[in-house]
Amino acid sequence: MDKTDSELLETIAGLHDIPEGSFNIRKNGKLLARNSTADIEIVPKKDKDGIDIIIKPGVVNKSVHIPVLLTVGDFRETVYNDFYIGEGADVTIVAGCGIHNDACGDAEHDGIHSFYLEKNAKVKYVERHYAAGDGTGKKSFDPVTNIYCKENACFVMESTQLGGVTSTDRKTYARLGKRAQLIVKEKILTDGEERAVTDFKVELEGEHSRADIVSRNVAKGKSVQSFGSDLIGKSECFGHVECDGILLGEARIVSTPKIDAVSPEASLVHEAAVGKIAGEQLLKLMSLGLTEQEAEDAVIKGFLN
Amino acid sequence: MLELKNISYTVQDEDTGRIQTILQDVSLSFTNGINVITGPNGSGKSTMIKLIMGFEKPASGKVLLDGEDITGLGVTERARRGFTIAFQQPVRFKGITVKKLLELASGRSMNTDDMCDCLSSVGLCARNYIDRAVDGTLSGGELKRIELATAIAKGGEVFLLDEPEAGIDLWSFEGLVQIFDRLRGKTLIIVSHQQRILETADRIFLFDSDKISEADRGDDLYALLTRRPALCRRNIKEQ
Ligand SMILES: Nc1ncnc2c1ncn2[C@@H]1O[C@H](COP(=O)(O)OP(=O)(O)OP(=O)(O)O)[C@@H](O)[C@H]1O
Ligand SMILES: [Mg+2]
Questions:
Q1: Which of A95, A93, A119 has its CA nearest to residue A39?
Q2: Which CATH number goes with the domain that contains B18?
Q3: What are the start-end ranges of the E strands in A234-288?
């Protein structure tokens, strides 16, 4: 690992070094390091690029890190990772990908992740995407996340796109069983000419299933973001989607939330608000001695925190 | 000393284009101590506070600080020159925590003890608020207290407190009065409708019917206003 690798690793996974426990670190399409443990097994796929992560039933307070680094241009990969989370397990999965592209060729990482949660399983999934580098080549992510929750399983997803990503097209799908829960906190920051698309589709199948999706977006410069969600309530369930966007410069945010109460017992809510930073917020912070720029930064930092 | 010289402030109605005068040819000076401004709703009290802080610019007239014309200074510069405001309606932020706001106000990082010092003066326990966002989940009174705490954390020479008692329960009034007492060495300009606050004033300004009357401690008007804060010019004459 060189300095760029370490910096990327710290930014996307909060890691200063090789982590403890189970991990799989991938760099430029190759395995950099891997460790399986008795509780969390990592098995490479035979038919395609990717790994199976098998978490034994009842494993609690354990984590697995699977960061990906991309430091070359002219490189595009699609990686299939499947997570099998055993009954009653409670784990944190830290994924994320950092691209550093100094070349003129494009760099793209597409992670296709599927999570299969058994009864009473609980997952906190943290995913960060970040890109840097001075090359003219694009830095792109097109991730797909599929989540299947059996009875009473709970999936918490925190996904963050920190900046520098030329284009992203995110697809998140979830199917929730009885009393299963999905909680999503998504944050996307775009600037310049960047493009970001994020789409959610959630099928609330089981009785008393719940979904809560909050997406906070900041679009600067001439960037464009698009948020879409489709909540389908098929039983007595509760679903809530919130898309909150801050616009700066000439940026644009399109929000299209859709709710579909297939069952008359379903209760579904969507909220969307897009706009500039409120003038009174800037005034309040400026009255504390901040410049207008500092005030703007503080509002955005808080919003995305 | 803070002086307003012949300040006028107008707004233009977006639809009709009609110009409405909110303040006309106001000249006032504020010295160190507690200056309380009172008067009916809509009489221009908050507008004047905003003009002093630089949120709004007067149509004509000047603002002088110790004789220096600061009319052209922006909000940030005034804040750095010692102007400190607590809003009548506190601003909410998605995601900015109480701790962060107090840090921005004080210009330094704060640990729990520092937070405690700051929030206890407004009757809040730091532990309960340290990680709370300054948003709609806080009660009205909590927001008001935190607003005041940011002003205290920032410090300054000229404090502009717009109805600091609004939404604060009666049991906590004495705490407020103590805060004002502690700041008495500075120039305090407090907008208030409350008798208990009027009584702390070194000088009262009554905004009413396009006129501003001033009263020092010992003046008849001072006695009248602290006895019956709801007086306005019409019935003052009848007294
Ligand atoms: N931008 C504006 N456009 C139109 N009218 C305005 C504007 N700003 C202030 N006003 C009007 O100016 C008057 C004075 O407002 P201001 O907020 O200063 O009153 P106040 O004395 O602080 O009242 P209160 O006791 O209710 O807080 C009000 O009638 C208000 O509606
Ligand atoms: Mg007012």
A1: A93
A2: 3.40.50.300
A3: 238-247, 252-261, 267-275
Q: What is the interface pTM, i.e. ipTM, of the complex?
A: 0.93
- How many domains, in total, are found in chain B? 1
CB of B47 within 6 A of ligand 1: the answer is yes
Map out the domains of chain A as residue ranges.
Answer: 3-304
Query: Which tokens sit at B149?
Result: 């705490």
- Phi then psi dihedrals of residue A82, to 5 deg: -115, 135
Number of CB atoms found within 10 A of residue B131's CB: 10
Of chain A, the end-to-end C-alpha distance in Å amounts to 29
Phi then psi dihedrals of residue A113, to 5 deg: -110, 130
Mutate to test the pocket of ligand 1, among B19, B21, B45, B189 (most ligand atoms within 8 A of CB): B45
Q: Is residue B66 part of a domain?
A: yes
| pLDDT tens digits, one per residue of A230-263 | 999 999 999 999 999 999 999 999 999 899 999 9
Please, which residues have CB within 8 angstroms of residue A94's CB and are 6 or more apart in sequence?
A13, A14, A63, A64, A65, A66, A67, A126, A127
Q: Model-level pTM?
A: 0.87
Q: Is B93 in the A-facing interface, judged by CB distances under 8 Å?
A: yes
- Cβ–ligand 1 distance for B200 under 6 Å, the answer no
Integer Cα distance of B8 and A7 in angstroms: 57
Provide the 8-state DSSP code for A276: P
A266-296: b or e for each residue (b if 16 or more CB lie within 10 Å)? bebebebebeebeeebbbbbbbbbbeeebbb
CA proximity to B148, closest of B163, B138, B136, B135: B163
Instruction: State the Cα–Cα distance between residues B84 and B64, nearest whole angstrom.
Output: 16
* B64-112 pLDDT, tens digit each: 999 999 999 999 999 999 999 999 999 999 989 999 999 999 999 988 8
